[in-house]
C-alpha cells in the first residue's frame, strides 16, 4: 500500500512524547498529513506542560493504552532489532522495538506494513480505548487504521 509513508512518519511523531522538537515540527506535520490536522491543531494551541501531562495521563498512567505491540498479545510476532536491521534501520535503544512509533517509522521508511497489519486487532483495540477515554490521540490511530486492510474474517487473537 504505497503512499501512506508520510502519514506513518507523522503519526509516529504524534505518538512520541510531545517535546520541543515535536512542537517545532507541528506546522510541517499539519501540512504533510492532513489526516492529522485536528490533532496537530489541538497540540499547537495546548500549552506544552498541559500537552505533556496529557500524554503521561493517556499512555503512561493507563496500562490499557500501551504503545507497545507486545502488550496486545497478537498472533503476529513483535518486532525485533533484527527485523529493523534487515530493513537497514537501527533502533536507538531508548524504546523497545515493539514501540508503536518505531513500528510506524519503520513502515514509513520501508513501505512494509506487515508489522502494522499483523497487529491490526491490537491497534483497533487501542484506538477504541483511546476514543472511549476521550483523547485526540484516538484520531492518530484512526488515520493509521483506515490505511490498513481489515482483519481477516474469523481471525481470532488472544484477549487482552
Automatic annotation (TrEMBL):
InterPro entries: DMSO/NO3_reduct_chaperone, NO3_reductase_chaperone_NarJ, TorD-like_sf. The keyword Repeat does not apply. PANTHER family: NITRATE REDUCTASE MOLYBDENUM COFACTOR ASSEMBLY CHAPERONE, NITRATE REDUCTASE MOLYBDENUM COFACTOR ASSEMBLY CHAPERONE NARJ. GO terms for biological process: chaperone-mediated protein complex assembly; nitrate assimilation. GO terms for molecular function: metallochaperone activity; unfolded protein binding. The keyword NAD does not apply. Keywords: Nitrate assimilation. Signal peptide: none annotated. This is Nitrate reductase delta subunit.
Amino acid at each position: 500500500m504505497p503512499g501512506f509513508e508520510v502519514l506513518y512518519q507523522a503519526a509516529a511523531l504524534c505518538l512520541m512524547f510531545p517535546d520541543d522538537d515535536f512542537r517545532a515540527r507541528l506546522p510541517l506535520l499539519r501540512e504533510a498529513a492532513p489526516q492529522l490536522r485536528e490533532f496537530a491543531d489541538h497540540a499547537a494551541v495546548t500549552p506544552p506542560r498541559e500537552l505533556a501531562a496529557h500524554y503521561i495521563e493517556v499512555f503512561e498512567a493507563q496500562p490499557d493504552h500501551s504503545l507497545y505491540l507486545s502488550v496486545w498479545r497478537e498472533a503476529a510476532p513483535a518486532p525485533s532489532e533484527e527485523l529493523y536491521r534487515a530493513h537497514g534501520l537501527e533502533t536507538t535503544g531508548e524504546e523497545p522495538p515493539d514501540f508503536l512509533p518505531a513500528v510506524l517509522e519503520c513502515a514509513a521508511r520501508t513501505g512494509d506494513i506487515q508489522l502494522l497489519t499483523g497487529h491490526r486487532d491490537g491497534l483497533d483495540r487501542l484506538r477504541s480505548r483511546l476514543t472511549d477515554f476521550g483523547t485526540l490521540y484516538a484520531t492518530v490511530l484512526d488515520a493509521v487504521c483506515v490505511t490498513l486492510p481489515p482483519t481477516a474474517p474469523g481471525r481470532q487473537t488472544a484477549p487482552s
